Amino acid sequence: MADYDRNNIFARILRGELPCKKVYEDEHALAFHDINPQAPTHILVVPREHIPSLNQAKDAGTIGRLALVAAEIAKQEGIADSGYRTVINTNREAGQTVFHIHLHLLGGRHMTWPPG
Ligand code: 5GP
């Protein structure tokens, strides 16, 4: 999935065509609650840049900022000290379903390893 679909769900959220429960935004990224949370805190950090997956990412700043925004939100949400997990699913075997790159921030419960 190398081509970017401008009508994917996160592109539509970024354009304001679909609602989201926003927790953070700046000129580079938007973060909002996942519609189907897998943990008490489950937030998606989405860059404004149109990148389908990590395979097409080029800019270290764009990708690095996702992690730093997640850490900031983790502090705001009160899970920074207890712990949290950040995940970028890439393509089929990792379970990527939305092809606009995003970072999952999960916390508020004990996480097991290895992941499923
Ligand atoms: P992926 O499986 O691609 O790594 O993650 C996609 C995530 O987007 C899933 O966790 C899914 O629950 C979430 N999601 C899908 N559609 C929507 C939506 O319309 N709104 C929000 N807030 N999350 C969505």
Summarize the structure in short.
This protein is α+β, with helices and mostly antiparallel strands and 116 residues long. The chain has 3 helices and 5 strands; from the N terminus they run H-E-E-E-H-E-H-E. It is globular.
Features:
116 residues, 3 helices, alpha+beta, globular, 5-stranded antiparallel β-sheet, binds guanosine-5'-monophosphate, 5 strands
Q: What's the oligomerization state? A: single chain
Q: List all distinct small molecules, including ions and cofactors, that are bound in this structure.
A: guanosine-5'-monophosphate
Radius of gyration over alpha carbons? 14 Å
User: On the 0-100 scale, what is the average pLDDT?
Assistant: 97
Class computed from helices, strands and strand pairing: alpha+beta
Measured by DSSP, the beta-strand proportion falls in 15-25%
Largest sheet: 5 strands, antiparallel
Distance between the termini: 23 Å
Strand line-up of the largest beta sheet: 1-2-3-5-4
Number of helices: 3
Helix share bin: 10-25%
In N-to-C order, the SSE pattern is HEEEHEHE
Count of beta strands: 5
Globular, elongated, flat, extended or rod-shaped: what is the shape? globular
Uncertain parts: none
